[in-house]
Design brief:
The complex is a heterodimer of chains A (about 260) and B (about 260).
Chain A (H helix, E strand, L loop, with lengths): L22 H19 L10 H14 L1 H33 L1 H14 L8 H8 L3 H25 L3 H9 L4 H38 L5 H10 L3 H29 L5
Helix pairs in contact in A: 2-10, 3-4, 3-6, 3-8, 5-6, 6-8, 7-8, 8-9, 8-10, 9-10
Chain B lengths: L1 E11 L2 E11 L4 E5 L6 H8 L7 E7 L10 E4 L11 H10 L5 H14 L15 H14 L4 E5 L7 H17 L3 E5 L3 H7 L2 E5 L6 E6 L12 H27 L1
Parallel strand pairs in B: 3-7, 3-8, 5-6, 6-7
Antiparallel strand pairs in B: 1-2, 1-4, 8-9
Helix pairs in contact in B: 2-3, 2-4, 3-4, 6-7
The chains are: A mainly alpha (about 260), B alpha/beta (about 260).
The complex binds adenosine-5'-triphosphate (ATP) and magnesium ion.
């Protein structure tokens, strides 16, 4: 039946994400170009959306005046100090919850109670406790990164393959060796992916805290611009935040690449 | 070091898994344990290795482990249980580090066991780069590194394909010929049992009892796949197992 011969219809493919380099960049450019063209042609009102080239000019000006660094430096310090405190405490507590049943029983309800509180609501309290200056901001960011890190960490510890733990016991490894050489490295992938969420929350809280009271900082800059309806500066500030988000996410990606190269 | 099990019984909550098992495992011999699925073979091995405690009965070590033995009762697991983030050398090193032997001695032991399992060229590879058979050889090298008095092997070849299994079986026979370790070898595979066992314990379906003990006098190195005596034996084992397996099968249908 050669006249009836047809190719078998192809039904496979799709449903598997493939890395497409530069696709994200193109989307970005198209949106920018659209905004630029829209504002120039008058199709988009200048009061609705600032012209991208004006935002760019604002950024350049900010850079040249040296004010850029004046705002970024305190913000970065707050973010780093606060999240290092919150994340390291969160990892320790998370590991303890993962290892000890009593700690787990005692702390998980507490974590569940703290997690959903919008931490920014506690800022006035923190101001009383830790002072109006940097202390309250560190505390806010620390608390905000603390709870998601705990949840990610004990989940990661729970997920470590128990057959590996039994193996360690069957070779007579000490408790501390099992924790250091089997549990912690096994939990690292989960801890690192939790870190992404924690740091993003840290950035959100950083801006919120700076909006509520800071002379310098990206949040303060955005707030000033907003209250003056200076959309160019507002967008310039938001852009800096986005860049901060992209950079931290990239840095965690690098960390994963180096520490988890055993995965594939 | 000999092992003796006296009237060992074990239950998980209200399920009796092992019932009155008495066995003697003399030094330098391999005991193979076969039995239908779910009869408690792995449980028995965990009891012998001290990873669980029997509900009743006792498990005794008789005599001192040999000189230089770091971990008298040592497991080889069905799923290898290698740390994926450690290289082959580091996986072996893991079980030595707690003994503080010094770096030079550690390296000497690692080199020795990797050579014995023909893995010398793969010391720096990660587990994911190895085939299943190689992973199991790493696990065996790791077990050898602690100079065990008794090796406890739970279906060590089950996760491997037939050819790899045959090669690794030859490796195990070689290793035993060179250093007569004591072994408890749990398997589903009757051919493996008659190939490696000096004595075979056939367990009944759950709750596992010792249904039959069979001694094989043929030296390990003379046992070939087509040895006539072993074939007869294998057929006999299969008849025993078939009764238990079909009975177990019927029981499950009534649950
Ligand atoms: N930790 C446990 N808790 C409760 N029940 C268990 C536990 N471990 C095993 N069992 C049950 O005990 C019975 C015997 O299990 P075991 O793994 O020892 O059987 P097995 O003979 O090794 O089976 P297989 O041939 O499938 O490996 C099974 O019914 C199993 O479900
Ligand atoms: Mg089993």
């Amino acid at each position: 039946m050669s006249d009836d011969a047809r190719n078998v219809p192809y039904r496979g493919g799709g449903f598997s994400p493939v890395a497409k380099r530069g696709a994200g960049f193109v989307v970005f450019l198209v949106l920018l170009a659209l905004a630029e063209w829209g504002t120039r042609s008058g199709w988009i009102n200048n009061l609705t959306l600032p012209r991208p080239s004006d935002v760019g000019a604002t950024l350049v000006e900010l850079w040249q005046s040296g004010l850029m660094w004046t705002h970024i430096a305190p913000s970065l310090t707050r973010l780093v100090v606060g999240s290092v405190m919150g994340i390291s405490a969160g990892i320790s507590v998370g590991v303890m919850i993962g290892l000890f049943s009593y700690v787990r029983a005692g702390l998980i309800p507490l974590v569940a109670a703290i997690f959903p509180i919008p931490k920014i609501a506690l800022l006035p309290l923190f101001v009383i406790w830790f002072g109006i200056d940097e202390g309250s901001k560190y505390a806010l960011i620390a608390l905000g990164t603390f709870t998601p890190t705990i949840v990610a960490t004990y989940g990661a510890v729970d997920n470590v393959d128990r057959t590996l733990v039994r193996m360690g016991q069957s070779f007579g490894l000490s408790w501390s060796s099992i924790v250091r050489k089997i549990i912690l490295p096994g939990a690292l992938p989960g801890i690192l992916s939790g870190l992404r969420v924690s740091v993003a929350i840290g950035i959100i809280l950083l801006v919120a805290a700076e909006m509520l009271g800071a002379e310098y900082g990206i949040g303060a800059y955005i707030l000033q611009a907003g209250s003056l309806y200076d959309l160019e500066r507002l967008f310039a500030g938001v852009l800096i935040l986005s860049v901060l988000g992209v950079v931290t996410s990239w840095a965690i990606g690098q960390l994963e690449k180096r520490l988890l190269n055993w995965r594939n | 070091m000999n092992l003796t099990l006296n009237h060992v019984s074990h239950r998980y909550s209200d399920m009796q898994v092992l019932d009155d098992i008495s066995l003697h495992i003399p030094a330098g011999e391999i005991l193979c344990v076969i039995g239908p699925s779910g009869c408690g073979k792995s449980t028995l091995l965990r009891l012998i290795g001290g990873l669980e405690q029997p509900t009743s009965g006792e498990i005794l070590q008789i005599g001192e482990p040999p000189e230089g033995c770091l971990n008298p009762l040592t497991f080889v697991f069905q799923d290898f249980a290698l740390l994926p983030w450690r290289t082959v050398r580091a996986n072996v090193s893991l079980v030595l580090e707690d003994h503080r032997l010094g770096r030079a001695e550690n390296n000497r032991i690692i080199d020795d066991v990797l050579a014995r399992t023909r893995l010398s060229d793969f010391g720096d590879a990660l587990p994911r780069q190895l085939s299943g058979g190689m992973k199991q050889r790493v696990a065996i090298a790791r077990a050898l590194a602690v100079k065990p008095a008794v090796m406890l092997l739970d279906e060590p070849l089950s996760a491997l394909d037939a050819q790899t299994r045959e090669l690794l079986m030859e490796d195990l026979v070689d290793l035993w010929e060179r250093q007569k370790f004591t072994g408890v070898y749990v398997t589903h595979n009757l051919a493996e049992a008659v190939r490696l066992g000096h004595r075979i314990a056939v367990l009944s379906r759950r709750p596992g009892r010792v249904r039959e003990l069979i001694d094989i006098d043929i030296p390990l190195k003379d046992r070939h796949m087509t040895h006539p005596e072993l074939e007869v034996l294998q057929t006999r084992l299969w008849d025993l197992m078939r009764e238990e397996a079909t009975a177990a099968d019927r029981e499950l249908q009534h649950v």
